[in-house]
Amino acid sequence: MLIFLFGADSFRSQEKLGELKNQYLAKNSSGTDLSVLDYGESATIQPLTNIFSAQGLFSSKKLVIIKNSMSKGTLEQQKEILTTLKTDASLEKDPDTIIVFFEAGSPKKNGALYKFLFKTAKKQEFSLLEGSQLANWAIAQATKLSPASSFSKSALNMLLAATGSDLHVLNNEIAKLVNYRTNGEIIDQDVVLLVKSKIDSTMFETIEMLSSGNKSRALELFHQQLSKGEDVFYILSMYTYQIRTLLKIGDFYWQGMTSAPQIAQASGLHPYVVQKSLSQIRNLSEEKTKQMLRDLAEIDMNAKTGKVDPVLALDMFIVSL
Question: Which pTM was predicted?
């Protein structure tokens, strides 16, 4: 039996490969007839025919995993594999001999080996998840790690904006969040505190420059983030989050409560977040902070409906303060 796993989403394809391997080992615990050929490694790869001849004569099940033969293997190696498959036509339908071709990515579709496998093997392509599929995957992954875990809608949106469709990165960030928020709902401040701390510190500095009136530095930081490939809607969501956080802190600060531990206890915000934000709120009035939040909400709505360019709108937002 031939199985072909490939696609841009290498996280899920590797999960599937691991699942097939574990299923085999559950029934064949010795693993004597499990072979792995990884063309991404520098070691010399033995011919596929040698693998079959070396396997036990009395074993009923065989599993051969061939990794990255199309993306890393030479043309001669690919020809050798293809010749072996075509010479022994029984391999295609033999249920006791499973050959899994795994590609960590999307191989070129014009290769002879790719065309043969695409036509004859049981294939599964793992495309990058987007939209609701990506969101549902993140929710399921958090629940798998901790059944009591969940996301607020805004926290989930912020997380996905930060990681994109890279499930390797997203999985690591979810694990951090679940371990931090041991049970219950993961909220905005958890994402701000734990996810992409280097980017978040730049976001925080930008708002600090705005609150102190240093517009030129705020513009510089904004465009630095864009030049590094940050999504403008992620930047916008982080600005909005920080201004909203300042308002929560300001509700207590403007009434005379100036102690960070007291504000943290009263507001439910993390003490670290409160301590870092107090220097900003001291430079802002309640009305100015509320107006900043209204302006950002308008930019978000107009940008998502195509009425304004979000980059230009944020430029104007910074300059107008």
Answer: 0.61
